[in-house]
Amino acid sequence: MDQWWLWLVVAVAVVVIALGIVLAVRARSHGQVESAPEKPQVEPETSPPEAVAEPTPATPEIETPEPTAGRLVRLRERLARSKNSLGKGLLTLLSSDKLTDEEWEEIEDTLLAADVGVTDTTEIVDRLRERVKVLGSRTSSQVRALLQEELTTALGVEADRNLNTVTEDGPATVMVVGVNGAGKTTTCGKIARVLIADGNTVVMGAADTFRAAAADQLETWGTRVGAKVVRSHEGADPASVAFDAVKTAKDDQADVVLVDTAGRLQNKVGLMDELGKVKRVVEKHGPVCETLLVLDATTGQNGLQQAKVFTEVCDVTGVILTKLDGTAKGGIVIAVQRQLGVPVKLIGLGEGPDDLAPFEVESFVDALISVDEQ
Ligand SMILES: Nc1nc2c(ncn2[C@@H]2O[C@H](COP(=O)(O)OP(=O)(O)OP(=O)(O)O)[C@@H](O)[C@H]2O)c(=O)[nH]1
Fold this sequence. Notes:
Rossmann fold; 14 helices; Four Helix Bundle (Hemerythrin (Met), subunit A); alpha/beta; about 10% strand; about 50% helix
C-alpha cells in the first residue's frame, strides 16, 4: 500500500516536469514568431517611393506669330540689295532720254531673266514703248510710276487672293498639293499658325503617307502652333487619312482642316488617281473650299511645266509660291498666273514659321522695283 503511494507521487512529479518543459518550449517559440514581423514593419524614415515623383510632361508652348501685314518689307529689302534686281535694271534703262532698239531689247532681256515669261514680257514692252513715246522726255519718278503701273496690270488687281476658309456648315477643307520638296508640309504649318492666331481652330491631316518623315514633320508643326494632327502609318491610304482628318475636324467642330498630300509626279496617271481619290473621298464630308498648289519659285519656267499637270488633275484655286527668298527672279509670279490661270495667294519667304506673306500686288511690285539707295 505504501509503495502504491510512492509510485503515484513519482508519476505526478514526472507529468508536472514534462508539462513544464513543453510549456517552456512553446512559450519560447511563440515569442520568436511574434517578434518576427517587427523587422519589416519598421517603416523607413525616407520620403515616398520614387514612382510617385514622376515628372509631369511639359505642355508645349504655343508660339504667337508676328502680324502678316508688313512681311513683304523683308522681301523688298532683299530684292533691293540684289545685284540683278529687276527694278534696278529697268529703271536705269527706261531713264535714258532716247531709247534705241538695242536698249528695248535689253529691257526685254531683263524681264525674261527675271522669269516674267515670253508672252508677258512682249506685252509689257509693247505697252511701255507706246507710253514712253507719248511721254517724250521723262523724270525718274515718271519712269518709276510707268513701270509700277505696267507690272501691276500684268499681275492683275481683280483676282480674289483671300484664302477661302469660311463655311456656313462644318470645317473649311483646304487641300495642299504640289511636286516633291516644293514646301507643302512647311506651308501647311505656316498657314495653320496664321489661322490659329486669327482665332480659328485647325486640324491637319498627314495624307502624305509616302514619305515617312512627312507626318512627323507635320506633327512637329501641329505641336508648335496648336493644331491637332491626324496621321497614320507610312504607306497607309492617303484618302483614308484625309477622310479621318475631316471627320475629326467635324467632331471637334474645328474651323479649318488642312490636308497635306504627297508630292509625287513620277507619272501623271498615278498622280491623277491618287489626288482625285483623296479629293473625292474628302468631298463625302462636303466640298473642298481651297485646293492650293505649292510651287517652288527657284525652279523657274521648268517648275511651271510640272505644275501645269496639277491644274489639269485637280481644280486648283490658288498658288503658293515658296522660296522667293532664294531667287532674285520675282517675275515668276507673273508667269505663274499667266500660265496656270490661277491667282498667287501666298508667298513663302523663308523656312521660319512667320516666313509666309499674303500676296498683295502693290507691295509686291514695290518690292520688285525697289532699289537699294545706300
Ligand atoms: N528658303 C525657303 N525654304 C523653304 C520655304 N518653304 C519651304 N522651305 C524648305 O523647303 C524644304 C522642303 O519643304 P517641305 O515642306 O518638306 O516640302 P514638301 O513639299 O512637303 O516635300 P515632300 O513631302 O517631299 O513632297 C524644307 O527644307 C523647307 O524648310 C521658303 O519659303 N523658303
